[in-house]
Write the structure tokens for this entry.
Amino acid sequence: MTPRELAALAAAAPNVTVAVVGDLMLDETWTGDVTRVAPEAPVPLLALSAMSRRAGGAGNVVENLASLGARSLALGAVGPEEEGAWLARRLTTLPGGGGTVVVDPLRTTPVKRRMVSEGRQLLRVDQEIAAGLSPAAEETLLAAALGALDRADVLLLSDYAKGTLTARLVSALLAGARKKGIPALIDPKGRDYGRYRGASVVTPNRKELEEVCGQPARDRATVAAVGETLRRDLGLDALLVKLSEEGMLLIREGEPPLAIASRAQEVFDVTGAGDTVLAMLGVGLGAGLDLPSAAEAANRAAGAAVARVGTAPVRWADLLDGMGAGPGEKRIDRAHLAALAATLHRGHRRIVFTNGCFDLLHPGHVRLLTEAKRFGDVLVVGLNSDESVRRLKGPERPVLSESDRAEVLGGLHAVDFVTIFGEDTPDAVIRALRPDVLVKGGDYTEETVVGAPFVRSCGGEVVLVPLVEGRSTSSMVARMKGGAGE
């Protein structure tokens, strides 16, 4: 998935409505310092300094949807205690949130408390009592969930085997989704996958696949064979198997297995990564992506999720970080600039913009771009098209085509994105991007920098970087011409 495709998906996300039904849990993180051993027993003594709460389980799926800007309908059950009240209030009042959280007096809200010091988890304490839904709570939740399907573009079932997703509930919701023609995606649990029969996509990890099929699947070929048997037996459109550091394997009817390479740079904590996969897969399919593209987006989201400690939803800006690792991946179309800018600004990323012809890249260019990146988080370079360069520099220029110049720029570590414009000035690009910092070379003054008044009016700044003496493309071209005539 390219940056432009991801930016387009980010722009489409607010128009996607996702119904999430499943086991709601509360995740608490207790953070402190461990400097000594407790006097009464040889265990670490945690000096508590902070406590935070997040929705877990199906609630974390909803948290991820909110972070991605999609509309969510949270549907589940909690107990009558304070933890349940907090969870219900949180999930139904998130940006773009809604739905129905049923209070079941016969239920206890599952709580997971993690003790953390110096970014590492020391202990987890689970507070829960295994119990199914009461008949009254099941009836209320089923009616609310079926009603939510009328407004949803996609249905997500998040099963943590805590008793919310009863056989009756799952069967009725899958039938309802089929009738409405919307995808039904399931993050499964347990050994009985028969109740998921007829779903669109089920997303087990390797261990879950082995448990339900009763045989090891240590290599991709075996995963593919075992997975296809399970997919066929359950009548699924696809099985998306999560393979941890190996990425994912997408198994579809009539198609060869599709391996999706892992995007994780470093794994700190896998907590909640499956919730992130389910949420992003739902947003992608709800926005109209095909299944392979939605799975690629989900895989990238999982890579961002495991790079942090604890349960934390991902943001679009997290996904764009590091996307342009290869020169060819850094080019972004003009049509997607506004979506890219909105995505980065929502993630509190500081955008830097500079522009030029960049014909025959030289040390002066490299110095300018390196210095420009120091003023923010993301550097976008506007590149004059071939036609634009000819109008500005004469019929013999550019020496390199726009595609070659874009690839050379993309090879620089400092450059995050490259966009080509055909006008004589980048004014329209600047207005679409709304950069926080506008950078030009020291041969300009602030009064002569195109876009400077607009950037300042938006609260941004203009920075002039000193030039490297004796370095210019024109002088290089002149020297080459002189050498050719000798």
